[in-house]
Amino acid sequence: MKKISFITALAMSLTAVIPFSAMADPEEGYLPIMYLSVEDNEKISVLPDGTVYINNEDLTGDDSIRVNVYVQDESKSCWNLAPKVKCADGNIKFNENAIENETTAYDDQHEFISSIDKEYNTVNITFKTPLLSTGTKLELTSENTDDYPIAYFNADVNSEIPAGNYRIYFLTEPDDPENNPDQRLTQISFRYDDGDSKTFTPEVRDQKIVVSDRMLGDVNKDGLIDAVDASEVLGEYASLSTDGVSTFTIEQTNAANINMDEYTDAVDASAILDYYAYLSTNGQEDKLGFAEYLTSIQE
Question: Which DSSP category does 287 fall into?
Answer without folding.
Answer: P
